Amino acid sequence: MRQTEVCMKKIVLDIKQQGEEQQHGFSARRRILAAVLGMVIGCAPYACASAAAPVEAKLTKVEGRTVGHIIDDVALWTRINESFLEEGNRHLFARVKVTVKEGLVLLMGSVPSEKDRLKAVSIAKNHEGVQKVIDELEVVDPNNQEYLNPVHYARDAAITSQVRAKMLLDKSIHSPAYTIETVRGVVYITGVAQTAEELAAVETIARGIDRVERVVSHVRVGAAS
User: Fold this and answer.
1) Domain ends where: 31, 63, 95?
2) What is the C-alpha to C-alpha distance for residues 143 and 159, in angstroms, rounded to an integer?
C-alpha cells in the first residue's frame, strides 16, 4: 500500500506541474485512474494504465459517479496524507487512516493526545474540496503497548478483506460504491447506497464477520451527485 501511495503522490505532483499534458503515452487523468486501480486490484500503476481506458467507463457505470469525481477524491486523499507527512505532523501519518468519498473525509485511528486529534481534524479541513470531516479518532495513551500491538492491524486487515469479499459475492450490492476500513474491530463504511435495503445488506455482512466489535456507517442513501 505504501508503494501505491508514493506513486499516487508523484502522480498528483505531476498534475500540479503539468496539468493534462501527455506523459509516457498516458494523460495525467488516466495515470490517476491507474493509481486507483493499483489500490483496488493491486497491480503496478503502469500495468494498470493499459487497462485504465476500458475500466474508466466501467467504474463510472457501476459506481454511479463520473471519473472526474473519483479522481478528485483520490487527489484530495493524497493531499491530506501529504500534509500528514510534513515536518511536525509525521507522527500522525502512521496513526491516522483517511478515506475520502465525494469530498466527505473520514479520519480513523488513534492519536496520543487531544491536541493531536484536533490538529489532524484541522489539517483535513484545510484542503480545497473537503465537504465535511468526520472525526472518528480516539485518544490513546502512547504507552499503551497492547493498543499498538501489530496483531490488531493484521486482524483489521483480515476483517476488511472478508467484508469486501462477501460484498462482491452479493449481486444486490454495488460494492465499488463503498469504502470499507477497519480499526481495532470497528468497521467503518462510507459511500453511496442505491437504496436503504442495499445499505442494510452491507451492514449485515459487516456485523456477521468474526471479531467485528461494531459497525459505523457514514453512507448516504440515494443517487451519487
Assistant:
1) 63
2) 26
CA–CA distances in Å: residue 38 to residues 1, 104, 166: 9, 22, 21
Closest CA to 173 of 214, 128, 203, 142: 203
Residue 118 corresponds to which cell in the numbers above? 484536533
Query: Which three-class secondary structure state does DSSP give residue 220?
Result: strand
Sequence-ordered list of residues with C-beta below 8 angstroms from that of 157, at least 6 positions apart, any chain: 182
pLDDT confidence bin for 22, thresholds 50/70/90:
very low
Q: How far is CA 214 from CA 173, 185, 186, in A?
A: 20, 7, 5
Q: How many domains does the chain have?
A: 3
pLDDT tens-place string over residues 166-196: 999 999 999 999 999 999 999 999 999 999 9
Q: Which domain holds residue 180?
A: 150-221
d(CA 146, CA 120): 23
